[in-house]
Design brief:
Distance between the termini of chain A: 53 Å
CATH superfamily of the largest domain in chain B: MetI-like
Order of helices and strands of chain B: HHHHHHHHHHHHHHH
Structural class of chain A: mainly alpha
Shape of chain A: globular
CATH superfamily of chain A: MetI-like
Largest sheet of chain B: none
Radius of gyration of chain B: 25 Å
CATH class of the largest domain in chain B: Mainly Alpha
CATH topology of the largest domain in chain B: MetI-like fold
Number of strands of chain B: 0
Shape of chain B: globular
CATH architecture of the largest domain in chain B: Orthogonal Bundle
Distance between the termini of chain B: 14 Å
Number of helices of chain B: 15
Oligomer: heterodimer
CATH topology of chain A: MetI-like fold
Largest sheet of chain A: none
Helix content of chain A: over 70%
Number of domains of chain A: 1
Number of domains of chain B: 2
Chain lengths: 302, 297
């Protein structure tokens, strides 16, 4: 009895085997690199975070010690606060501006194609070049931005990256300027999936442009908006290279963010264990915020 | 592809018949506002670049003047000669070029190969594996850069160009993008080829690869740009100055010659120029790559 079933199943299982081998042979070249360089480090992160590893000597398991130390770490709290500050302004600003640009471009006008390309250009330009140029534009004394502000009647324009109150707004402005073109493209793609009949129907019902925007555009864009918000959230919480190049966390610690704190602890002070604990906090924040957004999105769908 | 809609002109939304002069005036005002918005936005986006290029052609003293000089009084083309002597620009550009080309090539090869496995071969465990791939896209690199660094130093890759190749070439993003494309290719095509006796590898090479040239172009441009612009990877892994990429080099140049405003701008222009050229030539593929990866993500 047992033998007959095996015999009967054979051709199918051989095909399965063949396909498994075949499938893996395609995936393997990429998978080896991916597994070694991404999967293993992600898993190792959780182990390292529970050790006191500091590049010299051996790692000792210390359980949750690193996390309890975080609670009373003043610099960590500043970094966390600054990250939230950046996120709280960067997300709504980028979302609003990129949607406004997309709405502007989603009509028949001359120059639309040119602008679509131009708006996307900051996104493909390197952070270093962008930071260098903007730092000069923001230059407090003779920089073009402050000259412009003075010319429209602001007698004491801010010191931007040299001032601890204005450094973060400066970074937020540059971050938004750089990314809005990218999200604008995503919004444009979303806008073009809205059937024109919906607008026609709303018009017949006597809806004015603002009502059409609220009751047709916004609901139809929800999947796009959701995706963009998630991407923006993850991106903002992880803001790093822009700050590293523009302000290096300064003046003082006024623009120190979590990613940079991980970098400082890990690569400057060689405290691998402690830095990994910060990394896990960052990781968990990203996941938590994403899950919350998923839940909200689901609820609105129903 | 979803992105094809992007390039086609959009039917005007406000195309209802015009009733009387009142409506058409309002429309004209709306149109004027639209153009004004477009002009302001274009200025906001492009002025920093314009200022960068113009400053790179000024003398040092002319960069910051009151009032702003938008066009240099005399064009100092010699900045573009001096920078090669004052900095190691040629080494930086060479390293960056080597890295960008190698990473792009490997990413295209392994990415499209794996994507074929994920979309056209059926085997147990495939979907779980793909989920693991996608899952890690959401994990920020900042979170696992430390374990990754420890691993790389165990493999003795730190402070070699190989570290950056290893870092960038096996990204899940390429697999994801190519899989999205392969899924739009009808199964009947590969079925017909199978009946004709072509092996899976043959189908990949003879049918899928030629068909996916646009998707490959998108992936190539995005990968090349990403590697060219990467600052953090080289910052962590490339310690010796002879290995520096253009981004690291530019950053150190700014620190070293912090009062040479014009030359700093010249260096910035040179670091952006290759990407600007590629972007202008292949902007269609950029936009398509972004739209596909974004919309279905």
């Amino acid at each position: 009895m047992a033998t007959t079933t095996v015999v009967a199943r054979r051709p199918g299982s051989r095909l399965k085997w063949r396909n498994t081998l075949l499938g893996w042979s395609f995936i393997l070249p990429n998978f080896i690199g991916f597994a070694v360089l991404t999967l293993v480090p992600v898993i190792a992160l959780f182990y390292i975070a529970s050790t006191d590893w500091n590049a010299f000597g051996t790692a000792r398991l210390v359980g949750l010690d690193n996390f309890t130390r975080l609670l009373s770490d003043h610099s960590f709290r500043i970094a966390l606060w600054n990250t939230v500050y950046y996120t709280a302004f960067h997300i709504p600003l980028t979302l609003g501006l990129s949607l406004a640009l997309a709405l502007l471009l989603n009509r028949k006008m001359r120059g639309v194609a040119f602008f679509r390309t131009a708006a996307f250009f900051p996104y493909v330009t390197s952070i270093v070049a962008i930071a260098v140029v903007w730092n000069m534009l923001f230059s407090p004394e003779f920089g073009p931005i402050n000259q412009f502000l003075t010319s429209i009647g602001i007698s004491h324009p801010p010191g931007w990256t040299t001032s601890s109150t204005w450094a973060m707004p400066a970074v937020i402005i540059v971050g938004t300027w750089r990314e809005m073109g990218y999200y604008m493209l995503l919004f444009l793609a979303g806008l073009q999936t809205i059937p024109p009949e919906l607008y026609e129907a709303a018009r017949v019902d006597g809806a004015n442009p603002w009502q059409r925007f609220l009751n047709v555009t916004i609901p139809c864009l929800r999947p796009t908006t959701f995706f963009i918000t998630v991407m923006l959230t993850i991106g903002s919480f992880n803001v790093f290279d822009l700050i590293l190049v523009m302000t290096n966390g300064g003046p003082g610690q006024s623009t120190l963010v979590l990613s940079q704190y991980i970098y400082q602890k890990g690569f400057v002070e060689n405290k691998f264990g402690y830095a990994s604990a910060v990394a896990i906090v960052l990781f968990l924040i990203c996941i938590a915020v994403t899950v919350v957004q998923f839940v909200i999105n689901k609820r609105r769908e129903n | 592809m979803a992105s094809s809609t992007l390039t086609t002109p959009i039917a005007e939304i406000g195309s209802a018949p015009v009733h009387g002069g009142n409506r058409s005036t309002r429309k004209r005002i709306a149109r004027a506002f639209g153009y004004a918005g477009l002009v302001i936005a274009a200025a906001a986006v492009l002025l920093p670049f314009f200022w960068m290029v113009m400053s790179s052609l000024k003398t040092n003293n002319d960069v910051f003047t009151v009032p702003i000089q938008w066009i240099p009084k005399t064009f100092v083309w010699s900045n573009y000669v001096d920078i090669w002597q004052k900095s190691d620009m040629s080494t930086w550009l060479k390293n960056t070029m080597i890295l960008s080309v190698a990473v792009t090539f490997l990413q295209l090869l392994t990415g499209s190969f794996a994507a074929y496995g994920f979309s056209k071969v059926r085997f147990p465990g495939r979907d779980v594996l793909f989920l693991a791939y996608i899952g890690t896209i959401a994990v920020p690199w900042q979170a696992y850069m430390i374990p990754q660094f420890i691993l790389m130093s165990k493999l003795h890759l730190v402070n070699t160009l190989w570290s950056i190749v290893a870092l960038q070439a096996f990204g899940a993003f390429g697999v994801f993008l190519m899989k999205q494309f392969y899924e739009t290719v009808p199964e009947a095509l590969s079925e017909a080829a199978r009946i004709d006796g072509l092996s899976e590898y043959g189908i990949y090479r003879r049918i899928m690869l030629p068909l996916s040239v646009p998707a490959l172009a998108s992936l190539a441009l995005l990968t090349f740009t990403k590697t060219w612009n990467d600052y953090l990877g080289p910052l962590i892994y490339l310690r010796s100055p002879n290995l520096w990429t253009i981004q690291l080099g530019l950053k150190s140049f700014v620190g070293q010659y912090n009062a040479e405003y014009a030359l700093i701008m010249t260096g910035s222009v040179l670091s952006v120029l290759p990407i600007a050229i590629i972007f202008m030539l292949g902007q269609r593929y950029f936009v398509e790559g972004i739209a596909t990866s974004g919309l279905k993500g």
